[in-house]
Design goal:
The chain is mostly beta strands and 195 residues long. It is built from two helices and 13 strands, in the order H-E-E-E-E-E-E-E-E-E-E-E-E-E-H.
């Protein structure tokens, strides 16, 4: 007796269960960029999905926080100092040039949304990739400065359209937003986990 192929069995089982295959994707594939880790400490990021936010620095961007035991803060998190990331160094994404710097001196209280643009630094790489880091403070670079991947350039802040200390990261080339990936080998080095 001939046995049906595995693909035929899966198709038959799916049909019997009323399952349908996903429709083919019609939009272009999302391009990605690998960046040097944002912080030396453990962190987590919430990603913006395609189309969630319209500006190039927000499209496919990530909001990242330093965490300890799965939490971004101690206690109730009512003070900026409660946050594990508060005033921790933020690291440059790649070897490149500082393209722009904007400083917002207003510090938000956790839980209260700021009402103006955040402080931020935009970097550009030789291949045309741009990376924007927002909500930072104590910025130590200026436009035209050359930077190397992993160089501290600011600390985690809470300013602009934010309700708590974190760093926003956005990346793009030309007018195309890029999905952010972190260099996991560099992350292992930062954490002293060498192969």
């Amino acid at each position: 007796m001939d046995m049906p192929s595995a693909a035929l069995c899966v198709a038959a089982a799916s049909a019997a269960l009323g399952c349908h295959s996903a429709p083919p994707r019609t939009e272009a594939a999302i391009e990605a960029v690998t960046l040097f880790p944002l912080y030396a400490e453990y962190f987590t990021c919430a990603e913006h999905y395609a189309g969630e936010l319209p500006s190039i620095g927000d499209a496919l961007g990530s909001d990242c926080s330093i965490v300890n035991g799965g939490s971004s803060h101690r206690g109730e998190g009512t003070r900026n100092e409660d946050y594990y990331g508060w005033n921790k160094p933020v690291l440059t994404p790649f070897d490149g040039i500082v393209e722009a710097v904007y400083v917002n001196p207003v510090v938000n209280q956790p839980g209260t949304m700021g009402t103006s643009k955040s402080s931020g630094v935009t970097f550009v790489r030789a291949d045309g990739v741009h990376a924007l880091y927002g909500h930072v403070q104590a910025i130590t670079v200026k436009p035209g400065d050359h930077v190397v991947a992993g160089q501290p350039f600011a600390v985690v802040g809470n300013n602009g359209y934010a309700t708590g200390p974190h760093t926003h990261v956005g990346a793009w080339r030309d007018h195309t937003p890029l999905q952010i990936r972190w260099d996991l080998a560099a992350m292992a080095t930062l954490r002293g986990k060498h192969n």
